[in-house]
Amino acid sequence: MKIIAVCLGNICRSPLAHGILHHLASEYKLDVYVDSAGTGSYHAGESPCDGSKQVALAKGIDIRHFKARQITENDLEYFDLILAMDASNYNDLNRMAKNRMQKDKIRMILNYSFPEQNRSVPDSYFTRNYQEVFDLLYGACQELIKEVRNNTSQEK
Question: Which of 53, 69, 109, 132 could share a disulfide with 83, CB 3.0–4.6 Å?
Answer without folding.
Answer: 109
